[in-house]
Amino acid sequence: NLILAFETSCDETSVAVIEDGTKILSNIVATQIDSHQRFGGVVPEVASRHHIEWITRCIDQALAEAGVDYPDLMAVAVTYGPGLVGSLLVGVTAAKVVAWAHHLPLIPVNHMAGHLYAARFVGEFKYPQMALLVSGGHTELVYMPKEHEYEIVGETRDDAAGEAYDKIGRVLGVNYPAGKTIDEWAAQGQDTFHFPRAMEKEDNLDFSFSGLKSAFINTVHNADQRGEELNKYDLAASFQQSVVDVLAEKTMRALDQYPVKQLILAGGVAANHGLRDRLDHDMAKYHSNVTMLQAPLKLCGDNAAMIGAAAAVDYRHGDRAAWDLNAVPGLMFDRAKE
Ligand code: ATP
Ligand code: MG
Ligand code: FE
């Protein structure tokens, strides 16, 4: 029951071998961060080239580390969206080639479903379920009445949480991606700036982070012009407190509106210690009857293991890609698979 999974939606080239949807036999992640850092973000053309350069090595390594060969596989799985089109195409093409050559079914996987399934390595899923997915390109609350059914009930109206971290990080001179460093600085500072908490008290499940980003940037620039240097730890702590307050508040609101058995926290920003601790606290206080699974720290960022876990479920539900499977950069949960 082995799945060979591919993930190339952004700047990580990753191939994994997953057994029974829950056991990681190998999970090779080749990151390109160094190549993009000097540009302060991911350059799509550079990303595609890297994927092409690394993909076959990642396949060989994933199989070798798992100690398996092509005939042992049950299926091949690949992220076909959302993401950068050129990056996605490398994974989709490689997965097609392997599946075709070895007469294996090809499973098309949504990258955000993949993020969600990173939490499956922590424990079993229970439905109905709510997920807070926070990453570099997405910030959304997803309601799942049952397995394999996704409904977005709240999302950001502008920037994603991770994107906001990366943008304010740039202002503080932190290399891309800035989330981890800002998180570390935040732990050493205090919320002295009280930045706005956009839409926190509004009666909906949506988010907005661009106002916070602007308030942050203005504060730093104004201080600069006065020749004043602000405490970077307090700036980080204030920014993070604002992000975490809004994410936690809206998640609690979602749980009030949708009675669920379980909450999932996943996506790159799910690695944030402030957010993890706050949700631990709030869930114990307000929703102690709802269990929570937080994606493991090491599987919050992009990786193929999570794609393999999601694919195992998709496979059971009969999802199969045709040989003309294309990358879908703007793929959404509620849109029919193309
Ligand atoms: P998407 O999944 O939406 O397509 P992506 O794949 O580029 O976007 P991920 O890899 O899931 O995004 O997450 C990367 C983001 O997570 C970056 O913006 C990064 O700054 C952020 N991030 C990583 N660690 C932390 C942390 N500890 N605190 C806050 N943000 C973090
Ligand atoms: Mg990445
Ligand atoms: Fe991602």
UniProtKB/TrEMBL annotation:
Domain Gcp-like, residue spans: 23-308
Cofactor note: Binds 1 Fe(2+) ion per subunit.
Any Pfam family hit: TsaD
Main location: cytoplasm
Known catalytic reactions: L-threonylcarbamoyladenylate + adenosine(37) in tRNA = N(6)-L-threonylcarbamoyladenosine(37) in tRNA + AMP + H(+)
InterPro entries the UniProt entry points to: ATPase_NBD, Gcp-like_dom, KAE1/TsaD, TsaD
EC number(s) given by UniProt: 2.3.1.234
Binding site for Fe cation: H111, H115, D302
Keyword Secreted appears in the UniProt entry: no
Cofactor: Fe(2+)
Localization of this protein: Cytoplasm
Binding site for substrate: L133, V134, S135, G136, G137, D166, G179, D183, N272
Keywords for the protein's UniProt record, in alphabetical order: Acyltransferase, Cytoplasm, Iron, Metal-binding, Transferase, tRNA processing
Family to which this protein belongs: Belongs to the KAE1 / TsaD family.
Function: Required for the formation of a threonylcarbamoyl group on adenosine at position 37 (t(6)A37) in tRNAs that read codons beginning with adenine. Is involved in the transfer of the threonylcarbamoyl moiety of threonylcarbamoyl-AMP (TC-AMP) to the N6 group of A37, together with TsaE and TsaB. TsaD likely plays a direct catalytic role in this reaction.
PANTHER family (alphabetical): TRNA N6-ADENOSINE THREONYLCARBAMOYLTRANSFERASE, TRNA N6-ADENOSINE THREONYLCARBAMOYLTRANSFERASE, MITOCHONDRIAL
Protein name as annotated: tRNA N6-adenosine threonylcarbamoyltransferase
Organism this protein belongs to: Limosilactobacillus oris F0423
